[in-house]
Amino acid sequence: MSSTNGGDPLVEVRNLKKYFPIRQGLLQRETGRVHAVDDVTFAVREGETLGLVGESGCGKSTLGRTIVRLLEPTAGSVTFEGRDISSLGPRRLRPLRREMQMVFQDPYAIADEPVSALDVSIQSQMLNLLDDLQQEFHLTYIFIAHDLGVVRHVSNRIAVMYLGKLVELAPAEDLYQRPIMPYTEALLSAVPIPDPDLSHQRERIVLEGDVPSPINPPSGCRFHPRCRYMTDICREVEPPLADYGNGHLAACHHPLNVDKATLAQVTVSKRHTPAAADERAKPQTPGKEEAHPIPE
Predict the structure, then answer these.
(1) What are the DSSP calls for 137-190, one per residue?
(2) Looking at domain 1-155, which CATH architecture does it have?
(3) Exposed site from 2, 22, 163, 286, fewest CB < 10 Å?
(4) Which is it for the CA torsion 264, 273, 294, 139, positive or negative?
């Protein structure tokens, strides 16, 4: 994406939803919906790289496609350079295609899983090329990937998705040093560490159970069926996205790597919190206070 809008957010996504209807029977009546992207809000600043991560099926690629209008949003809005493009028709969208582009997972990809099919040496060359292009043409990237090791080195900020929801958003290094949402902690525990001694000492978190169905997502926190810190409130109440300072947002009733003094200062981000979440349910009890940073 390219722009010259003076440093304001280049792209703003507000309460974006993308549901896919499930139709059955002779009359093809709608019997359910796949909640692929479910009330997601964030902004991308001009010139930055936002990493978008999560397991396969979490909705990250669908989110990318919806932002650039390759898929029609079910609800919510996408603003580009201050202009709402959510409902523009094909003719009015055509000039924007030169400014907003998405290339998919192949040797020429620059957005969605751009280096996943390449060996390490070619990955490095591709990442350097992306950086050079960004510097030369003042580009802005939304970098979609499942390899958190790669994402760390190219992103200014990282957004974590789980089952259609945004569950954590933070500056890249802050996320790796101090993950707050247990799902993020589990993802980071799988990132390879070059030092074999450090790798041996680290706890590998294996998530139990299958990813729940996006057709009928769990109540409360969608991650609760697989979370080792889960309590009753996690099953019953969807947590709001709370602001832990320095632009670090997370949705969790039992946040990690936060002491009680810090927790007392936390506020709820009304802008980012989905409508289904309870803004009054500010986290009260930390899951654990000790951070285990991921070495570079």
Answers:
(1) HTB-EEEE-S-HHHHHHH-SEEEEEETTEEEEEEEHHHHHH---SHHHHHHHTT
(2) 3-Layer(aba) Sandwich (3.40)
(3) 22
(4) negative
Distance (Å, rounded) from C-alpha 68 to C-alpha 197? Answer: 44
Q: Which helix (H) or strand (E) holds 127?
A: helix 120-137
3-state SS, residue 262: helix
Q: How many CB atoms sit inside 10 A of residue 28's CB?
A: 9
Question: Which 3 state secondary structure label does DSSP give 135?
Answer: helix
282 φ, ψ to 5°?
-65, 135
pLDDT digits (tens), the chain, 296 positions: 654 444 578 999 999 999 999 999 888 888 899 999 999 999 999 999 999 999 888 999 999 999 999 999 999 999 999 999 998 998 898 888 888 887 654 434 665 555 555 566 677 788 888 888 888 888 899 999 887 878 888 899 999 999 999 999 999 999 999 999 999 999 998 776 655 555 556 667 778 878 899 999 999 999 999 999 999 999 999 999 999 999 999 999 999 999 888 898 999 999 999 999 999 899 988 876 555 555 55
**Numbered ranges of CATH 3.40.50.300 in the chain:** 1-155
How many CB atoms are located within 10 Å of the residue 30 CB?
9
Backbone dihedral angles phi then psi of residue 128, each to the nearest 5 degrees: -65, -40
What lies within 8 Å, CB to CB, of 154 at 6+ separation is: 49, 51, 127, 130, 131, 141, 143
- The gap from C-alpha 243 to its chain's centroid, in whole angstroms, comes to 16
Which residue, 97, 138, 111, 94, is CA-closest to 52? 111
